[in-house]
Write a structure and sequence with these properties.
Blueprint: E1 10-19, H1 25-35, E2 39-45, E3 48-55, H2 57-70, E4 76-85, E5 93-95, H3 120-126, H4 170-177, E6 198-201, H5 210-219, E7 224-227, E8 232-237, H6 241-251, E9 259-261, H7 265-271, E10 272-273, H8 276-282, E11 289-294, E12 311-314, H9 319-327, E13 332-336, H10 348-354, E14 361-365, E15 377-380, E16 384-388, E17 397-409, E18 419-428, H11 438-454, E19 461-465, H12 471-483, E20 486-490, H13 492-503, E21 510-520, E22 526-535, E23 538-545, E24 548-549, H14 560-577, H15 583-591, E25 597-598, H16 601-612, H17 623-630, E26 644-646, E27 649-651, H18 653-664, H19 669-688, E28 695-699, H20 706-718, E29 722-724, H21 736-745
Parallel strand pairs: 2-5, 7-14, 9-12, 11-15, 17-19, 19-20, 21-28, 23-27, 28-29
Antiparallel strand pairs: 1-3, 1-4, 2-3, 6-14, 7-8, 8-13, 9-13, 10-11, 11-12, 15-16, 17-18, 21-22, 22-23, 24-25, 26-27
Helix pairs in contact: 1-2, 5-9, 13-21, 14-15, 14-16, 14-18, 16-17, 18-19, 19-20
Length: 748
């Protein structure tokens, strides 16, 4: 196509940054340019997407307008740069080979898309007996399929993915080369003749019968290990109590809830209440696990979520899952392919060894997984709240309001994620897990190595938590010393509120409310009920929960009676408290031996759960608080106990006395719990009202509590405050690395 000589040609160079590769953006640009009779080219670079476009000025202006509205839905443009360049008199429009553009030593800034759930077009093909991809479990196109978990390098091109050893057949190559095909430049494109293949272990079935054999195994109560998009999953029939019990025993997961894989939304609605918004998230390209309220329908094994009032549910996210659920159209338990406390398995031989004492049947394939990526977990609380950020969300960059020097943030010890930041973007890794086991610490180090290699990133500063004993802190100290890189330590709750403020674009001043189980404070005590004002680059603690002692220290994280003992000791004094607590706790409290002080709202929850009889042990983190929240049920009341605000201290002693009084009078635990939650929300409003600041940021694991978050938001907004909570990063410790990166990477 040649621009008419009568028209005065202009030429623009357009640089698009963000998640702009792997979603069919180049074909979209090509078709738009052809339609508008413009010439030039488009190509992927390791900085994003680059376009040179030539034609008359009016059409170029229209092209820029349509470029934004025509972008594929999965694309996320974080920055657009437009420059005028000299016209070249180019003829036609073409897609050029990808190129390296950044100078040596500078990080790559092109973002890789997350893995995308199967689109409707591909879904129709795999269930169409006349289609050449009928029942092919690795079907994909530019709108769906693996991305992050197969990417080996940037730019995102087939030779830079784990599909590099699968040569396309003539039919697939024709699709890949055809501008009008939806598989035009679809990097994982393949079919049954040229792409990855599926097999069973132990062997003994033909490929066409694999999924039928898996369905039979599930119906017999077998545990099936299946190689998914981001790693192995363990599956059992969710309607079989014995199968679920056997999975718990073999996986050594005694108490935590299992997630459910449902075949259809109709099945979801049978067992769960799902709003339109919850259904939208379930059906989204991220296809996460969504926490839903169960219905009264019978059938599900009681051992799936024995301590939770909600069920974690997901829909099939890959062709393999869709085909498997068609063969077994009933709910399945779907959990990570690992022993509890270990990272998810991703390689065939690794899974066969590590899961041999768990799984009865293995479903394997030969497409390598570049990195593990577990299922994300979301709940809806005034919008989606990501509790575990992994498949479908990682590694989308989070845009921040100021420039960052190259910074590596290593997060906390629990629910660990790491982050790299440079420019105005932070890349938060997928969920890694608790750094208690050697295997997870190894996965932590591999994730750091992987992200630095992928983005050709070399940090100028390392940032960790203030706590000296976190595995992440110890690693950061060693790395900084060996590599002569500056090390910054950021206080836990500073990182929490900064994370929430950063992802919401909140600029100072703001009031940050950081409530969680534990984090080392600047004064050496255990914080967890903090109010922080961010202003002029500083975070100042203006209020906190009245401290109390934890007999046994970290043991109180699991034994709620220890938190209750600390509350009672402060409330009644040594004489009266001795009558209500164990002698060994009294001895520790009296002599202040192994009884650290804490201002933790999380531990306050544990103490109240114990006093009301709702929860006595935290078999896993936050269990007692979950049970306390669940006890409210459908109770609606504005009645509240009192947390007195004075001198920057939230005094709870009258609250403890009133709770014990109501408990002794036979008041329903749910009513007591509602009044307790209401007291906490009222305290937030009381502290916020002592400031002139209108922006309030809520962060920390306590704000996974839906009742507390909703009520606090409503009360604050009713009084004219603007309230911000997490949407892109987890509110728990999975979001710490984002806050760390923003605080330590800021260029002063």
């Amino acid at each position: 196509m040649i621009t008419s000589p009568a028209q005065k040609s202009e030429r623009l160079r357009i640089a698009l940054h963000g998640a702009v590769q792997g979603a069919g953006f180049r074909p979209t640009v090509y078709r738009l340019a052809e339609k508008m009779r413009l010439t030039g080219w488009v190509r992927n670079t390791n900085a994003g997407l680059e376009i040179e476009i030539e034609g008359d000025g009016e059409r170029l202006t229209e092209f820029l307008l349509q470029l934004e509205t025509s972008a594929p839905t999965a694309v996320m443009i974080t920055m657009q740069e437009v420059f005028r360049v000299a016209p070249t008199g180019s003829v036609g429009f073409e897609i050029l080979p990808s190129t390296e553009q950044t100078t040596s030593g500078r990080p790559k800034v092109a973002a890789i898309l997350p893995d995308l759930a199967t689109c409707s077009s591909c879904l129709n093909e795999i269930f169409d007996q006349q289609n050449r991809r009928f029942a092919y479990p690795f079907t994909n196109c530019t709108q769906c399929g693996p991305r992050y978990t197969i990417a080996l390098d940037i730019p995102y091109d087939r030779p830079n993915t784990t599909m590099q050893n699968f040569a396309m057949c003539q039919s697939c190559q024709r699709e890949y080369d055809s501008i009008n095909d939806r598989r035009f430049h679809a990097q994982p494109n393949a079919c049954g003749n040229c792409g990855p293949q599926l097999w069973l272990c132990p062997p003994g079935s033909k490929p066409a019968n694999i999924l039928a054999e898996v369905a039979n195994a599930l119906q017999r109560g077998c545990i099936v290990a299946i190689k998914g998009i981001g790693g192995f999953q363990l599956l059992v029939d969710a309607l079989s109590p014995s199968a679920v019990s056997r999975l718990r025993a073999r996986k050594q997961r005694e108490h935590k809830s299992f997630a459910l894989l449902m075949p259809t939304m109709e099945c979801v609605r049978r067992y769960c209440e799902a709003s339109d918004e919850e259904e939208s998230v379930l059906r989204s390209s991220a296809a996460p696990i969504v926490l839903l309220q169960p219905t009264t329908a019978a059938g599900l094994a009681p051992g799936i979520a024995p301590f939770s009032s909600s069920l974690g549910v997901m829909l099939p996210s890959s062709p393999l899952h869709h085909l498997m659920m068609a063969a077994h159209p009933f709910p399945l338990v779907a959990t990570s392919g690992n022993l509890t406390g270990e990272p998810i398995a991703i390689e065939n031989d690794e899974a066969l060894e590590r899961l041999k004492n768990i799984a009865d049947v293995f479903v394997l394939h030969d497409r390598p997984i570049a990195r593990p990526c577990d299922d994300s977990v979301v709940r809806l609380v005034s919008g989606p709240q990501i509790l575990r950020r992994a498949r479908g969300y990682a590694p989308l960059p989070i845009q921040v309001s100021h420039e960052l020097r190259p910074v590596l943030a290593v997060g906390g010890h629990l629910k660990n994620t790491i982050a790299i930041g440079f420019g105005r973007q932070v890349w938060l890794s997928q969920h890694i897990g608790d750094l208690d086991s050697p295997e997870t610490r190894d996965a932590f180090e591999k994730t750091i190595e992987d992200m630095c290699k992928l983005y050709r990133f070399k940090p100028e500063v390392i940032v960790s938590d203030l706590h000296p004993d976190y595995a992440s802190t110890l690693w950061a100290q060693t790395y900084a010393a060996v590599n002569s890189v500056s090390l910054v330590k950021v206080q836990h709750h500073h990182a929490h509120v900064t994370s929430c403020a950063a992802e919401n674009g909140v600029t100072e001043p703001y009031l940050g409310v950081a409530w969680d189980g534990a984090g080392l404070g600047l004064d050496g005590t255990i914080w967890g009920g903090e109010f922080l004002i961010a202003d002029q680059g500083c975070l100042v603690r203006i209020a906190s929960l009245q401290p109390f002692a934890l007999p046994g220290g970290e043991a109180a994280m699991h034994d709620c009676s220890r938190s209750a003992a600390g509350l009672l000791w402060t409330t009644y004094g040594a004489g009266n408290a001795r009558k209500q607590i164990k002698p060994e706790f009294a001895a520790m409290l009296e002599h202040e031996i192994n009884a650290p002080q804490t201002s933790s709202v999380g531990r306050l929850f544990d103490g109240v759960a114990y006093l009301t009889g709702v929860g006595r042990q935290n078999f896993f983190e936050g269990l007692a608080a979950m049970r306390l929240e669940s006890s409210i049920g459908q109770i609606q009341t504005d009645d509240a106990y009192v947390i007195a605000e004075g001198g920057g201290i939230g005094e709870w002693m009258s609250l403890v006395k009133d709770i014990q009084k109501d408990t002794g009078s036979g008041v329903h635990p749910g009513v007591i719990s509602a009044k307790f939650h209401n007291a906490l929300a009222n305290w937030i409003v009381a502290v916020a009202s002592t400031t002139k600041i209108r922006n309030v940021v809520l962060s920390g694991g306590v704000f996974q509590n839906a009742y507390l978050l909703r009520r606090s938001r409503r009360l604050l907004e009713d009084r004219g405050f603007e309230v911000f909570s997490h949407r892109q990063a987890p509110t728990n410790d999975g979001g710490l690395a984002l806050g760390q990166a923003v605080l330590a990477g800021k260029i002063h």
